Task: structure prediction
Amino acid sequence: MARLRGVSDETSVAVIGASGRMGSAVCRAVEAAGGLQLVGTFDMGDELGDLAGAHVVVEFSVPDASPANVAHCVAQGVHVVVGTTGWDAARLQTLERQLAGAPPSRSGAGVGVLVAPNFAIGAILMMSFAQQAARFYESVEIIELHHPDKVDAPSGTAARTADLVGAARESAGLCPVPDATTRDPGGARGGRVHGIPVHSVRLRGLVAHQEVLLGNEGEALTIRHDSFDRVSFMPGVIEGVRKVADHPGVTVGLEHYLGLA
Result:
């Protein structure tokens, strides 16, 4: 990876969404990490320009703003670690087209973009374990629980988990999740993602929590992860910053950087 002039042994990092809960935690984590230097912080309404000369940008904004922010980074030849949710298949396809026409990164290699639904190592393991377990159980449902200031539902982690579980069930030839419900005017059964029921809870005092419930006749398996503080996401963010330049193109999920995919 190219280096910032005058900082020969450090990778320069900028943060978009720096004043938000996650963004401010990322700024502190970058400043505390060896080999990284925080060179720029941006928030809504700021002119991104050349992104303060950064080689990697961490993007934690809001779903409506994230695609334009990431597109700007790509056009500048800057690697991006994206933690904002809302990146569905259509947005990812657009991003892939943008990368195909992007200039080389500031190091001369292809630009890398990591889109990660969750950066907590335990959450990534939870998703991996759920994917492994999915083919052994007739029933599976997901409950995700977050603070009430979260603007989207289901969470990116729940949607990603459901996609992984649904694909694993299809590969195993399992039937759809059994459910005899024929009347649910209030939507009590939640939503469906890749055929998996997903339920969203928004409760003051929570941060980020998820349960994957799997059931067979006579037994149940619960896989749960809890983030009690946003500091739990920071080791994964820093790992993404350190490795994104080694993965040109779009990568969805930090598990690909950790050997868990």
Remarks:
- The two ends are 24 Å apart (CA to CA).
- Residues 4 and 53 are 7 Å apart (CA to CA).
- Residues 156-171 form the longest helix (16 residues).
